[in-house]
Amino acid sequence: MPHPHASTAGAPLRLAGLLYGVAAYAAFNGVVLYCVGFLGNFLVPLSIDAGRAPDAPGALPIDLALLALFGVQHSLMARPGFKAWMTRRVHASLERATYVVLSSAALAFVMWQWRPLPAIVWQVDAAWAQTALWLLFAAGWTLALAATFFTDHFELLGVKQALAYFRGRPYVPGEFREAAVYRWVRHPIMLGQIVAFWATPTMSAGHLLFAAAMLAYTLVGLYFEERDLVAAHGDAYRDYQRRTPKLIPRPPRPQTRKEEHR
Fold first, then answer.
1. Global pTM value
2. What are residue 123's DSSP bridge partners?
3. Could you read off the pLDDT of 164-180 as tens digits, one per residue?
4. Coil, strand or helix at 253
């Protein structure tokens, strides 16, 4: 009897599923690269502080609505109940790629429709301090990217699942594990993004709104994500929570003898 999550589709449909997963991965990378330029105000036609008429009528409510749209989409689709609903409409092995596509589209829409709010909140003029902040900006993005490879980069972005669909096999998620930077902090991807969002020599009102909203979304989202992780991994994740901070890194704490034998 075939596994319920194995693909029984014909070869053309399975190939289409694989191409869909690869396209989702490419779209994600393109949108993230654009986001780097968007927040840094370089190399892109529309950025957080330039590209559209500044202080356009209704700019603040439009930006708030855009951020709310992104937060609702991102959080709702990450919940187990929504995933169960989604897998009744798309194959389970393509659910993650669909999440990646829609999350990328939501972020792209935010950047496309963003209205600059150019009032300066702070500005750092010293050359050494500007350099330090740009290095911190780069370090944040580097941490966020590197952390995906210390968990499972291609599973996180739906490529492995799409490949399993192409091969007609069920996808078996990897087990919970602690590796590299995950021994220092539970959510290094989120930490890297927070650093990147806030590290700027010139903080405009629009940039501050974006960074503050994303920080608030991250803190709320992590509450629900941690609840889901405990439900999925049980005592293994509870032990990890006790030993490892959520967002402020610290050197790893050794497991107790009791924890090692669970």
1. 0.88
2. 202
3. 999 988 888 877 788 88
4. coil
